[in-house]
Amino acid sequence: MEIIENGFVFSDQKELLKIEAIHRYLSTESYWAKNIPLETVKRSIENALCFGIYKGGEQVGFARWITDKATFAWLCDVYIEEEYRGLGLSKKLMALMIFHPDLQGLRRYQLATLDAHGLYEQFGFSAIQNPERQMGIVVPNVYEKPVP
């Protein structure tokens, strides 16, 4: 899938992804993946359904779904470079992703966000029902190097 709108290219083609740009953003600017190693980013991309936004050949946005393409999908690592925010790019990306053929008919779509609830609510996301049924293992600061 590839859509061109207002000079921006939206694509699910992994060969277009700028891995170093994605790593730079995630490891230095995101609140959720600070210091993530490049090899971890590469592996995460290899095993996910990924989407990029490009302008003039540069990566300006990214998102990926962890999914079995049958029952479940977890949306993560969504970002738009700061200088391109406020242009509706995240809304356009969400609209394209939520209707992607590999994500149809799933039983559950999930994500976690600190500050973008309003965006995701526009696409049907809401607070988890029955959160007491959900469990997880959280490893805080997993990418931090131990102090010698």
Question: Helical segment tally?
Answer: 4
**CATH topology (fold) name:** Aminopeptidase
Helix percentage range: 10-25%
Radius of gyration: 16 Å
The CATH class is: Alpha Beta
Taking the sheet with the most strands, its summary is:
6 strands, mixed
Strand line-up in the sheet with most strands: 1-2-3-4-5-6
Backbone shape: globular
Mean pLDDT: 93
Protein name: GNAT family N-acetyltransferase
Pfam families: Acetyltransf_1
GO molecular function: acyltransferase activity, transferring groups other than amino-acyl groups
Domain N-acetyltransferase: 1-148
Structure description:
The protein has 148 residues and is an alpha+beta fold. It has a single domain, classed as Aminopeptidase (3-Layer(aba) Sandwich), CATH 3.40.630. The protein has 4 helices and 6 strands; from the N terminus they run E-E-H-H-E-E-E-H-E-H. The protein has helices at residues 19-28, 38-46, 89-98, 117-121, and strands spanning 2-5, 8-11, 49-55, 58-67, 72-80, 108-111. A 6-stranded mixed beta sheet has the order 1-2-3-4-5-6, sandwiched between helices. A hairpin with a 4-residue loop joins strand 4 (58-67) and strand 5. The radius of gyration is 16 Å and the shape is globular. The model has no long low-confidence stretch (mean pLDDT 93).
Any key phrases for this structure?
single chain, 148 residues, alpha+beta, Aminopeptidase, 6-stranded mixed beta sheet, globular
